[in-house]
Structure formats: C-alpha cells, structure tokens
Amino acid sequence: MKKRLLLGVSLSVGLAASAFAESHVTVYLPEQAGSVTVDGARNLSELVMNPALFNRTWWPGTVIATPQATVQQQAVKQAVLASLSALAAAFRQDDDGDLAAAADNLHQQVSQLTVTGRQFVPLDPDNIRIYPEHNRRLDGEYSVYTLQRPATVRLFGLRENSGPQPFVPGQDVKTYLDNHAPLAGYDKNQVWLIQPDGTTRQVPVAYWNHRHAEAAPGSTLFVGFSAHALPSAYRDLNLRILALLTNRVPD
C-alpha cells in the first residue's frame, strides 16, 4: 500500500487559503547552477505556468518546500545520524563488528542527504487544471527544486556500492539489487520503493515472496535493517530514514 510519510507536517503547511495570499518562491535550476525568483503567485497554477518553471522541469520529481518544514526535516536528519552513531556503538559493545560497520555505512549515506521540507502536493499543470481542488493557494516563502528527467535509480542502504544505478525501462526492482552484496543485518525479504513524487511502498524481493515491481526513473530503493537485527530501542529507525528519503532534494 502506498504511503506518504510526512513526519507530522500537514499537507497544508504554508499552503494557505487566504484570498489575499502573497508568495515569494525561489526556483532552483540545477542545469544553470543557480536560481530565479517568482513573486506574487497566488496559487500553484500561477506558479507552475510561470516561465521560470513551465517546460523547464520534470514534474513527477519536482519538489516544493517551505522554510519551516525544512528546519524540521534537517533536525530529523541530525536525530537519525545520532541514532545511527549510537547503534554502531551498541553493536561494537556487543562485539559485532559487521553490524557496526553496516550502521557506519548507513550513517555515511544519510549524512550525504540534502533534505528539505517537502509539501506533498501535485505540481503537474495538467493535474492542477483537471482537479481544481489541487490548486492550493500560496502564501509566504517557498523553495522549488527542478530537475531534468532522470536516467538513474538510486540504491540506498545496506548494499555495497550504493548510489545511482542506470534506469532500465520495465526492469524488476529486484534486478537492481543484483551485483550489490548485502551488508550485515540487511532485510532480505523486502525493499522500500520511493517513487519521485514521494509515495512509498514495500516490495517483496525474497525467493519465497517475490512480486514483480518496477521503479520509475528517479526512484530510490532503500534496503533497511532486518527487524531481527535492530535492538528494540531502534525499531523505528528504518521508517525514520525512509521519511528522510521522501524529503530528499532531487538530484
């Protein structure tokens, strides 16, 4: 079942219904290594049809964020990093160097994430035109992160040589894991699939429960710890990391 992990951040944070809404939007354009500003867009329709955005981004992975939510997500990242450090120390105390090394590896990957306070709202102009209820009003400060259509799928978590992998149309999720040896404590039964729009679901990948699933370009595959490997105090660690990945700034 698809989920949206918002970490308590309402869909309506910063997306106000005021008839007198005013907005200031910073649009990041990675292909230009810079940004432009859009002032005064009253709603999402006016924003996405602005020349700064229209036909200049790949809508499924485009992210809009608010400063308040970004501060929250950055705090969550620091808390997750602290948990991973403590987990690695606990494994070492138990003389389990392999599990400690896996936690350290995951710590390094999380430390390299750039997260933002994503607002999980449709941005595709056609979607907003067809469904007027998606045309939320804008008020205040926003950041929009654009991207070109990706050519990769990102492998994240407890597999060796994680990082971007070439996207192959129609390829099963399980195949992206081939040739990437697992790290100690990994979940062998399922992987989390994070689609570019932030929706997530678990995909069964073991020989006994495998089901075919495909990842869109720009997706992330997260291999977390097995529940059996995590001490009880860290049972929510995978979900906390998963939530960070839904708030990642697109490549």
Break the fold down into its secondary structure elements and pairings.
Layout: E1 23-29, E2 34-39, H1 44-48, E3 63-65, H2 67-93, H3 97-111, H4 125-130, E4 140-145, E5 152-157, E6 163-166, H5 173-176, E7 190-194, E8 200-204, E9 220-223, H6 237-246
Parallel strand pairs: 1-4, 5-9
Antiparallel strand pairs: 1-2, 3-4, 5-6, 7-8, 7-9
Helix pairs in contact: 2-3, 2-6
Describe the structure.
The chain has helices at residues 44-48, 67-93, 97-111, 125-130, 173-176, 237-246; strands at 23-29, 34-39, 63-65, 140-145, 152-157, 163-166, 190-194, 200-204, 220-223. With 251 residues, it is α+β, with helices and mostly antiparallel strands. Helix 2 (67-93) packs antiparallel against helix 3 and helix 2 packs antiparallel against helix 6 (237-246). The strands form two sheets. The chain has a five-stranded mixed β-sheet. A four-stranded mixed β-sheet has the order 2-1-4-3.
What features would you highlight for this structure?
27% helix; 6 helices; 9 strands; 251 residues; four-stranded mixed β-sheet; alpha+beta; five-stranded mixed β-sheet; globular
Strand order of the largest sheet: 6-5-9-7-8
Radius of gyration: 19 Å
The low-confidence runs, each spanning 5 or more residues with pLDDT under 50, are 1-20
Shape: globular
H and E string: EEHEHHHEEEHEEEH
Which structural class best describes the helix and strand composition? alpha+beta
Largest sheet: 5 strands, mixed
- Helix count, DSSP H or I runs of 4 or more residues: 6
Taking all residues together, what is the mean pLDDT? Answer: 92
Share of helix, binned:
25-40%
- Count of distinct strands: 9
Question: What fraction of the residues are assigned to beta strands by DSSP?
Answer: 15-25%
